[in-house]
Amino acid sequence: MRKILGGALVALVLLVPAARAEEGAPDAYRISGPVTHDNLAIYLVHGKSAPGPVLLTLQEALAQAKAKVHEKGDVNELEIENVGDKEVFVQAGDIVKGGQQDRVLSVSLIVPPKSGRMPIAAFCVEPRRWTKRGAEDAKNFGSADAMMPSKQSKLVMAKPAPAPQPAGTPVEESDPQQKVWSDVARIQGKLSANIGSPVAAPQSQSSLELSLENKSLEKAEAPYVAALKPAGESDDDIVGYVMAVNGKLATADLYPWNGLFRKMWPKLLRASVTEALAERDGAAAAAALPSTADAQSFLDRGGKAPASTSKLTREVSQKKRETADMLAVETERRSDGSWLYRSYIAK
Fold first, then answer.
1. What is this structure's pTM?
2. Is residue 26 part of a domain?
């Protein structure tokens, strides 16, 4: 059975076991850190890793030709297809490169083996292209090697996805897609100013993905990555992280499996470093750091707020918990309430 609900696919999805989420009860997490470099602080979340196989990530699946992401001709909707024999994990914020314009996927899903084409909600992160780029395939997307490096856009994407629009449809400033486009331009401008070199690519100046591949940006990011990456690989009970930029808690990502966190960690860290570089402010960078208790409270507040639940697929639901200062989004298995991914975003 196929049906679109809120921009996400409704279909039969078989999921591997994950961590049981007890409603209203705090999880037994331990927070360590922070590990810091310049204006970025990383707090590691330790917890018991769930049993069962670790999911294949979209980045891995595309690189191994076990998944395909197809252009559909709508700015805010693509089609994803698992052609392999293992489930594929898609995380909201994954940027796919190619097609008529680069996109960022806006929902977290499991794509079952041999799935056929499934609709998936997306936002454009390359507003001024609607044609083939170089040698790329205009009908398909070749990679998912980067993530959206902005909590502002993550907040926009966590809201209900806009209805699919044909290419070239005018949008108002209040439209979620326009907000993402505006944020892309903001990120490019701030990165260029803070690293002292333009990040826009000649072949498509509006492409966020190509900006993230800029060599000067990679050079500026390298000291952050060298200082912080080993910490996320140090223990086999690390299941997530909380980050703070300029002394303020910004986002957190949690997984049931240490193995899945380790797969996602390089991409998550790169996005965090890019965000820190874009937001770098000399005075703010010297601000006092939040404590581990502050990081724990950040997770607790997001986990205890009243939840609104929506059905993404027959097997998977999404819970959103909102407070005055944050939005928490959880993807979970409907049959037993086990969770697959948790995201926390400060407002």
1. 0.88
2. yes
